[in-house]
DNA sequence: TAGATTGTTAATCGATTAACAATC
DNA sequence: TAGATTGTTAATCGATTAACAATC
């Protein structure tokens, strides 16, 4: 089956997980893997894994399974991690600071080109130059930016989101604990730490609710 | 309908969102809200909201809707944010640092009591005391800890997880980009930043895949 | 070839939505 | 009372799992 559009969100959310496991299998030098083996290490069913992958193509071979390296490469193309991405970071508080320093993303080809906050500040040995948020619209006019990261306080995030959308970013990675609205088809992905902690809290208080 | 166990994960994951919106409605001084109004601001259907809430009780009133303050209080009890939580942070890298400084959680009653990392270090004006990870098992023996936060490099996270589980934490909030396994019924909640960024990347490259 | 495992269809299961009687 | 809106059941929709023919 060829590439199929309209893949459901549930499937899409599992792709990074497949990629991650394949990477680690590949790192261990393993060459082939079956959906059954993948099932055992991911905890998903073999059936689901095969069906998920078949939304994008026939990557396996009957009687053999999947070539690890090959499937990994296909997934990297499907997800888009085979490309490089230019990012700007808006909000240099605690989270923003951590994201800026986080090496793994840079290694994967995601690079933060500029950092914006309320107060401009020169670069020093620890931190990058902080550009005044007022200059963000101009920056976006003059530089193609793929992803805007929002790590501002929640009161500012919708406004920043608007600026980023008007500046034609392709996607927004939002860390502020509110639901913001994008326009011009800008893709939004939220990391709601508060919701995550609350979900954890819920289960801590309701151990009987495990119905997995 | 009374409290109903075996609520599905989808429902549970929406509770923090309800709480967040109710909080903001309450802050604006609004006293009553209908499922229809909640539907408009959350983007969920009124039917779903009513059904979700009815897993836990009958909090509304026909012809009126819900009392904002009352529903908020109920939700805070359901989620468990009405209580205080003692946490330890393991791994004082970029993310760990950010989480330590993040004020919002403290205000909500989540407090980081101790920080562990490979190298012990005295407290200074910016940072807390860092205790050697070797002392973590003893610490857990002598202090009740509700939640362990893992923000170590991925190679260390399963080991840290084991120590936390043996030390009888109730839940683990994992920021390392691997799937770890808990034991002794310890609840696990992952924040997989890499997966989140990859999902964003996917949609950036497949704008046609919006089927919401 | 025989064994293994895929790709894909059909069956099942669960979650969401629609509808409406109950009732404030 | 009349209007509004809940709680709850029934209908629909979608996602997961099971099964198996195809085939390496």
UniProtKB/TrEMBL annotation, chains A, B:
<feature type="DNA-binding region" description="H-T-H motif">
    <location>
        <begin position="17"/>
        <end position="56"/>
    </location>
</feature>
<dbReference type="Pfam" id="PF02629">
    <property type="entry name" value="CoA_binding"/>
</dbReference>
<dbReference type="InterPro" id="IPR036291">
    <property type="entry name" value="NAD(P)-bd_dom_sf"/>
</dbReference>
<keyword id="KW-0520">NAD</keyword>
<feature type="domain" description="CoA-binding">
    <location>
        <begin position="80"/>
        <end position="179"/>
    </location>
</feature>
<dbReference type="InterPro" id="IPR036388">
    <property type="entry name" value="WH-like_DNA-bd_sf"/>
</dbReference>
<keyword id="KW-0804">Transcription</keyword>
<dbReference type="InterPro" id="IPR036390">
    <property type="entry name" value="WH_DNA-bd_sf"/>
</dbReference>
<comment type="subunit">
    <text>Homodimer.</text>
</comment>
<keyword id="KW-0963">Cytoplasm</keyword>
<dbReference type="InterPro" id="IPR003781">
    <property type="entry name" value="CoA-bd"/>
</dbReference>
<dbReference type="InterPro" id="IPR022876">
    <property type="entry name" value="Tscrpt_rep_Rex"/>
</dbReference>
<keyword id="KW-0678">Repressor</keyword>
<keyword id="KW-0238">DNA-binding</keyword>
<keyword id="KW-0805">Transcription regulation</keyword>
<protein>
    <recommendedName>
        <fullName>Redox-sensing transcriptional repressor Rex</fullName>
    </recommendedName>
</protein>
<comment type="similarity">
    <text>Belongs to the transcriptional regulatory Rex family.</text>
</comment>
<dbReference type="InterPro" id="IPR009718">
    <property type="entry name" value="Rex_DNA-bd_C_dom"/>
</dbReference>
<dbReference type="Pfam" id="PF06971">
    <property type="entry name" value="Put_DNA-bind_N"/>
</dbReference>
<comment type="function">
    <text>Modulates transcription in response to changes in cellular NADH/NAD(+) redox state.</text>
</comment>
<feature type="binding site">
    <location>
        <begin position="91"/>
        <end position="96"/>
    </location>
    <ligand>
        <name>NAD(+)</name>
    </ligand>
</feature>
